[in-house]
Design brief:
The structure holds two protein chains of two kinds. By secondary structure, chain A is of the alpha/beta class. Chain A has one domain: Rossmann fold (3-Layer(aba) Sandwich). Chain A has twelve helices and twelve strands. Chain B is of the alpha/beta class. Helices cover 35% and strands 22% of the residues of chain B. Chain B is built from 13 helices and twelve strands. Chain B has an eight-stranded mixed sheet with strand order 6-7-8-3-9-10-12-11, sandwiched between helices. In chain B, strands 2-1-4-5 form a four-stranded antiparallel sheet, with helices on one face. The chains are: A alpha/beta, B alpha/beta. Chains A and B meet through helix 7, helix 8, helix 9 and helix 10 of A and helix 8, helix 9, helix 10 and helix 11 of B.
């Protein structure tokens, strides 16, 4: 296991204004987030809409610059956006989006789109190489002549993958790559991602709201809530014994054939990132919150078993100090 | 005695069949799940039943509510049925609500249509409905616009409007697909509670087998415009008989156990203009034989209240 990419204390703020004369409000989409991506392994990032998972993906890829914190690839800091070094770096890390039709150009044939990154980065191109890439993604060489509207949803996502693989990336960031697909096709794409990783040994950041899918493809998972990671650990352990109250609610919300017992129902909606609650951002929805949770934001730190948790109550020794 | 009785319902758009003859019953107060992938006809079934399809759609067959035929019924009759006896809610609450009217007005509109209420009594009833669907701070929310509410809250408003006519059947078309998982859990819990309290039947249309397993007593699985399997919820998850249902369950990533490649169903759903002559699932089916390619299998009884449209399932003994 070697570290490919390390992100430390990333912060990304956006300014937005309510109405024309409204005061500008600062929205912290990502608020002090650290993560490590290892070669050949997948980190699954789970969370609900607006928790900052997609922004995290863009920061990690260097598509956006963080307002604070740093992303290091192979120990070297991310070069400034738009520069020559940054463009070279882009070939090493690729992204797969949720909506394959939106990610493809409707007026270009699949073959032309898969070949484009090869030409841009000065790599050996040509029909033979394109055919090879298409086959690797589970398409036929003759799909190169087709246009996006002629393919099914699953085939389009395969075409997007073939294009992402063209530059032999070391990191693939997949942002909800299966959410727009039917159940039977989701399984095909998940299988393909795992096959590709086994063959090419690339690192993956798999962003999804679907815990089932994340468990299926990931070696580690991180649960995000309002711009921060609240829990990180081995997928099976997090699913079996979630330590953060929010992870517990997420796990219990997974609809499951033959479930016994009642699920934990959270009250209220996910909070607005522009209006972050004081202390622990989860405390207004947390059934276990104590006075301290309203005042002091918990830090993500390891428990004795190695699980990282950001909750005052999950770290037992501390709890006794408080009491 | 079923409340809704659908027989041989078929729909085609410009000569392309979307629904190829389905039979379905809904009993009073029951929770029925209708499961399938996009384009299988699960939504079209109910849009056709309620006369909500565009004029170019050709609809044949029969849909009876109580003893009344709905297909080809007069516009006034359908207007009373829609919202009054059968209400429907959709996937995206934000696009079902009118963005320029306050929530209260949209609920009272339904109340005046179906219960003849107006003025202060209508407003009081609207507040009661918002309370019933678990809207926090209902009194103040009556004056809110849809954009001021979250997705989950808007879906609660849609459910409140659907309840305004005190329907006997609530058809919920992917009601939680656009919502976050924790909010999905809230809405499913709400629908289940309301069904029990009001004694109405719930038809849950979804692509998510997990959602159905927890909410519904009976499940019908649809593929390419036909029902391919129908059984009690517990039975279908424990002993799926149709290879498509087996495939759907196999494609669902497990929550525990060893991680191995998923049993993905190869290929994709056939296009309406290139439907195979026999069983529509045969080209993707791991067990397909020559006979499967020749004739469309009938939905046959395998066991008490378990039916499947597969010639192999009919041969194989079904475990009870």
């Amino acid at each position: 296991m070697s570290v490919l990419l390390q992100a430390r204390d990333l912060v990304r703020r956006y300014r937005m204004r309510r109405g024309i004369f409204g005061r500008a409000v600062e929205l912290r989409a990502v608020d002090g987030l650290s993560l490590t991506l290892e070669r050949g392994r997948t980190l699954g990032l789970v969370g609900e809409s607006g928790c900052g998972k997609s922004t995290t993906g863009r920061l990690v890829l260097g598509l956006e610059a963080p307002d604070a914190g740093q992303v290091q690839v192979d120990g070297a800091p991310m070069p400034p956006i738009g520069g020559r070094a940054w463009r070279q770096q882009r070939a090493r890390m690729q992204m797969v989006f949720q909506d394959p039709l939106g990610a493809l150009d409707r007026r270009l044939s699949i073959g032309a789109q898969v070949e484009e990154p090869l030409i841009i980065h000065g790599l050996p191109a040509g029909p033979a190489r394109v055919a090879e890439l298409l086959m690797e993604a589970g398409l036929r060489p003759d799909h190169a002549q087709r246009y996006p509207h002629e393919l099914s949803g699953g085939q389009r996502q395969r075409a997007v993958l073939a294009r992402a693989l063209a530059t032999a990336p070391e990191l693939l960031v997949c942002d909800e790559p299966i959410s727009a697909l039917d159940v039977s096709i989701q399984a095909q794409v998940m299988n393909l991602l795992m096959e590709l990783q086994a063959r090419r040994g690339m690192a993956m950041l798999f962003i999804s709201h679907d815990l089932r899918a994340v468990r299926q493809v990931s070696h580690r998972i991180a649960v995000m809530y309002l711009g921060r990671i609240v829990e990180e650990g081995e997928p099976d352990e997090v699913l079996k014994t979630p330590a953060h109250p929010y992870s517990r609610a997420l796990v219990s919300a997974i609809p499951h054939p033959g479930r016994r017992g009642r699920r934990i129902l959270l009250t209220g909606d996910p909070p607005n990132p522009a209006d972050r609650p004081s202390g622990c951002a989860f405390h207004p929805r947390c059934a276990e919150a104590v006075a301290r949770c309203r005042i002091e934001a918990p830090v993500l730190r390891p428990r004795p078993d190695g699980r990282l948790v950001a909750c005052h109550l999950a770290h037992a020794p501390l709890l006794s100090q408080v009491a | 005695m079923s409340l809704v009785q659908i027989r041989g319902l078929a729909v085609s758009f410009a000569g392309q069949p979307a629904l190829r003859g389905i039979d379905l019953d809904v009993a009073p107060g029951e929770a029925l799940g209708l499961v399938g992938e996009s384009g299988c006809g699960k939504s079209v079934t109910w849009l056709a039943a309620l006369g909500l399809l565009p004029g170019k759609a050709r609809v044949t067959g029969s849909v009876r509510l109580g003893g009344m035929e709905l297909l080809g019924a007069k516009a006034e009759t359908l207007e009373q049925v829609r919202g009054g006896r059968i209400a429907m809610i959709f996937q995206d609450p934000a696009s079902s609500l009118n963005p320029v009217h306050r929530i209260g007005r949209q609920i009272t509109e339904a109340l005046s249509l179906h219960q003849g209420l107006s003025g202060a009594p209508a407003r009081a009833e609207a507040k009661r409905l918002l309370d019933a669907v678990g809207m926090p701070d209902a009194q103040r929310r009556l004056d809110a616009f849809p954009h001021e509410l979250s997705g989950g809250q808007n879906q609660r408003v849609m459910i409140a409007i659907a309840l305004a006519g005190r329907p006997e059947v609530l058809v919920a078309d992917e009601p939680t697909t656009a919502l976050d998982v924790t909010i999905q859990a809230q809405i499913l819990d709400l629908l289940q509670g309301l069904r029990r309290e009001m004694g109405m039947a719930l038809v849950l249309i979804t692509h998510d087998l997990g959602v159905v397993s927890e909410t519904c007593e009976r499940v019908a699985v649809m593929y390419a415009g036909r029902i391919v399997e129908e059984a009690a919820s517990g039975q279908i998850f424990a002993h799926p008989a149709h290879p498509y249902t087996q495939g759907l369950l196999g494609a669902l990533p497990p929550l525990d156990g060893e991680r191995r490649p998923l049993m993905a169903i190869p290929g994709g759903v056939p296009e309406p203009w290139a439907m195979p002559p026999g069983c529509a699932f045969a080209p993707r089916c791991p067990h397909a034989r020559t006979a499967c390619l020749q004739a469309v299998p009938e939905l046959a009884d395998l066991h008490i209240s378990h039916r499947a449209a597969c010639i192999l399932a009919a041969d194989a003994p079904v475990l009870a």
